[in-house]
Design brief:
This protein is mostly helical and 97 residues long. Helix content is 88%, strand content 0%. It is built from four helices and no strands. The longest helix has 37 residues. It is elongated and about 55 Å long. The two termini are 25 Å apart.
Length: 97
């Protein structure tokens, strides 16, 4: 069995850990959906730069949207890193030690 799967199975049995896992899972899913938005905006920017517009938006419109979306994504990534700092610390110990 995968060690991470085993750890998740053990955590599911603990109600406090289950609540934390649900919060992290919901946040990770939000981050994934926002990432798909970034991909769409990037593709739209490229297409709009070549054709003049994409879905009724010009390249400038996409760049404005991309700037706003970038700020939101930076905030979400910082929160994600803070939520998973203990896991990252353990991974760094394994990598460097």
């Amino acid at each position: 069995m995968d060690p991470m799967a085993k750890a998740f199975e053990e955590a599911k049995k603990n109600p406090k850990m289950r609540k934390k896992l649900k919060i992290k899972a919901a946040f990770s899913m939000l981050l994934f959906v926002m990432f798909l938005g970034v991909v769409f905006i990037t593709v739209g920017t490229v297409i709009a730069s070549k054709n003049g517009s994409f879905l009724g938006m010009t390249q400038l419109d996409f760049l404005k949207l991309r700037a706003r979306y970038g700020i939101i994504m930076m905030f979400l990534i910082i929160v994600h890193l803070l939520m998973n700092r203990n896991i990252m610390r353990k991974e760094l110990e394994m990598l460097l030690g």
